[in-house]
Amino acid sequence: MGLKGIAAKWLARREMKAVKAWSDHPERAQERTFRYLCMTLAATDFGHDHGITALTTQEEWTQKVPLRDYEGIKPYIERIKEGEINVLWKGKPAYFCKTSGTTSGTKYIPMSEEGIKAQTRAARQALLAYIAETGNSSFTEGKMIFLQGSPRMTDVQGISVGRLSGIVAHHVPSYLQKNRMPSWKTNSIEDWEKKVDAIVEETVDADMRLISGIPPWVQMYFERLLKRSGKQNIQQLFPNFSVFAHGGVNYQPYKATMEKLIGGRVDSIETYPASEGFIAFQDRQNEEGLLLNLDGGIYYEFVPLAEIHDPSPRRLSLNEVVKGVNYAIVLNTSSGLWGYIIGDTVKFTSTKPYRIVVTGRIKHFISAFGEHVIAEEVEKAMTDVSAALGLEISEFHVAPQVNPAEGLPYHEWFIESEAPLPNELAADLDKKMCTLNSYYKDLIHGKVLQSLKVTPLKSGAFNAYMASVGRLGGQNKLPRLSNDRSVAEALED
Predict the structure, then answer these.
(1) Which of 172, 291, 397, 463 has the fewest Cβ atoms surrounding its Cβ within 10 A?
(2) Of the residues 259, 275, 296, the one at which a domain ends
């Protein structure tokens, strides 16, 4: 083992003591964060507008600071973009994270110096938690790749603007810089198709040991690597590859395809970073769920998903949540987001310590007929059925067909696979959905809906769709389901 591997193990042991300190005392950690946020916020325009003082209680907070999405906080962000300071947080943001919104167009999410430090600290803790548990630090001796957006920044009133992954690229620790790939020049390529090809050329002969990125884009990278090299799987090409770090989407629907491409199983590290803050990371290989990050300058609130559209939904603090319930996650952050609904839904798998799984998006659901189907359910159905049938599914999307040419309405599943889809797939998916969602089952049995239908798509169809809407690559993710047919109609075309 080299010096980097030895140092990494020592650092992992030290860092895990710090993680244990806040994960073992979550309420204390949240109270400390809340007090710091209130004390700082009191000196800002937002704090003045909402009557926040250093002594504001958590109960008073829910009365004074309403829940809001991006549109609700946008007027304050526009003031920051015009050059004002002390608006949402002290001074001005270090960065704006630029993200794509469906209703708001481009979003500019503020990130303070505290915010970027929290992002890099959590990413480091995820890697060190893995080393501490498994003892594997060999990946630090070879090359690592982080498939991410361009690190090139633009400027708004002295504030750097870029994608989250591009911003983070500026803060990779110096001791990892020599190991990191691709090159800055290649990483700066904007066109995703050209970028992947350039990355393949740079890395095909490298000693790759850790590979990180959103699963569908890593899958594309693997496929092109194999085509370029002529190898049967990634482990033949990179025999020292031992760790796959991923996040952004549920990995389970991709798992079978990825393991075939890799040539078997490798250890994985799942993370839950967002432009709004680094929310959770995997700290145990054999525990379900990700450890909620209580060291990231975030005070969390949770709204039961069933109440999210109520006029006055309950806003629960961490000590009020229970396992197995879907919540909309609400963030209050040291980058200046307050009562902010990021749109994700989560479920707790443990409360000692607090671990979560992401179950979907508030806006990504189907309830055209009162069925309340969510992403967690369609992904579970696809994972279980494809495993039982021995299928490798590349991508899929589910949409309602409200006015079919004949018969009752139904759910239409658009499924991409290189191999032909078996005839029993639709029936098996329908049966599984009935076990996962009682509303759906009642509608099927009550003859309100007919059984779901499968529409097969050729390989590459979803990438073509994402390219057509300018969202191919980077951190962009395909919605698993929709309550309308906007994606479905594009796929049909």
Answers:
(1) 172
(2) 296
